[in-house]
Amino acid sequence: MLGEDIAFFPGKDGGIAALWDRCPHRGAYLSRGFCLFDGTVSCPYHGYTFDETGTCVAALTEGPDSGLNGKLRVRHYPTAVVRGVVFVWMGETEPVPIEEDVPEELFDPEYVAVPYASIWPMNWTLTIENSGDSHNSYLHRFRLRRLINFSAFQQLPAYWSGIRIVEETDNSIGFVPAVDAPQQAYYPGVEAKWSRQVWWRWRKQRKPGVETMAKQPYRNQYRLPSIARVNTSITHLHTRYATPVDENHTLMWTFGVIRTQTWWQKLWAKFYLRFWYYIFTIRGVNELEDLPVQRYDRLDPTAPQKLGANDQAIIYWRRRMPLKSRDNVRLWKKGVHIVEEMEAQELAAQQEVGD
Fold this sequence. Notes:
The protein is of the alpha+beta class and 355 residues long. The chain has helices spanning 124-130, 136-139, 145-148, 263-294, 312-319, 326-332, 335-354; strands spanning 6-10, 16-20, 41-42, 48-50, 56-59, 76-77, 79-82, 85-88, 111-120, 163-168, 172-177, 185-187, 192-194, 220-223, 227-231, 236-246, 249-259.
């Protein structure tokens, strides 16, 4: 993760321990080693054994009285397990309670949350920005799955008419896409209308003011460190957690979340999320529609970009949120300068949108 190799092994208390995947003795990969004793991992080369804190507790080939015991160390990473998923603290500073960084719905038993994971050949920032991008009414307009999940009968706007930032916290921004545009518009540059055809649809456009599951004012949210959330309805939430593997690969965790109140709702939610949601949202939308245009060999994020009114949330994410990262704030130790820099960049972002 983040370009670093990590070895995982069972801890004594039933948790998961994480160490840098190199033995400090001769550089062998600890992930190729063995769990010979509770709460430890032993190097496959010489049997140097490390506990959950990364401390060498036994040098099996050097004897019980080895001078390296207690002195030889490898970096360890604090971990926590939530909904069967291992979260790793990769920061340079002290970890905070996991509840501060992981969305609250993953801790509430009222919510059914089913995780999905796969490696995407793309930079992690692209998939986060995609959740607040105006591609939806264009990229997802033509697909066959829209007939199967009935979204083909929902009115789609011809374009987005801007983004409105409605909430900002220390680690997130919430925003609402303005989608109150007609289903068809005339574009004088091509002397034609888009969309090309419009037919009667009985499901109206969703308005920005519709109450969301968390009863928040936003429809979409960017959240540090690398989370994108979409309130798809009053009971459904689509949470995407992008874990960078390296510059061009991302371990994509997606949580389908449904709020329930009764046992039969929980049973239905588990079935829906594991089958229908996986087929038509995770596979049908994310992996078969979004991913093909965002792959590192099909989209160049380093190319010059000119962002517009529909990209205001992306501008906020790029310019404001990195300054709020916990390590940046802790290590810089000049809070007043951070605020001034954020204000200056916000002004520049607004001017860019205005242009």
